[in-house]
Specification:
Blueprint: E1 20-24, E2 27-31, E3 34-35, E4 40-41, E5 46-47, H1 77-84, H2 96-105, H3 113-119
Antiparallel strand pairs: 1-2, 2-5, 3-4
Length: 127
């Protein structure tokens, strides 16, 4: 009965097996197919994800068990002061500017003990 028009009420609704799927960004969307024996095209859209996207979450510290690299050795304030004054280690004892700096900062910054002994400077360890 190809040439005969079929009444709208006589059409059977499309089934899931008669629909084909097309991939989209949101998943898979079901689109209707042309059904000449049923008298037209099914335009009903149905959204059905075939498989949900798998999102793996990384838990924990990825560096667990690895050694922490050592921080680079930075110069002390004493070493920076001697560089600024352009002194060699042999000239430390004879520098009056370095002695004044050590006298002012001896209680709060590192100064080599051999230099403190050479100048007879005492440091208050409680401060």
């Amino acid at each position: 009965m190809r040439g005969v028009a079929v009444n709208q009420l006589d059409r059977a609704p499309p089934t899931l097996t008669s629909l084909r799927t097309r991939p989209t960004k949101l998943g898979r969307v079901l689109f209707g197919e042309h059904h000449p024996e049923r008298g037209g095209v099914s335009s009903r859209l149905m959204s059905r994800p075939d498989a949900l996207p798998v999102i793996t979450r990384k838990h924990g510290n990825p560096n667990w068990g690895r050694f922490i690299p050592f921080a680079p050795a930075l110069p002390t304030e004493f070493e920076m002061q001697t560089r600024q004054l352009q002194l060699t280690p042999e000239a430390y004892v004879f520098s009056s500017e370095l002695r004044n700096w050590c006298d002012l900062n001896g209680n709060r910054l590192y100064i080599p003990e051999w230099l403190l002994d050479a100048w007879n400077l005492r440091v208050n360890a409680d401060r």
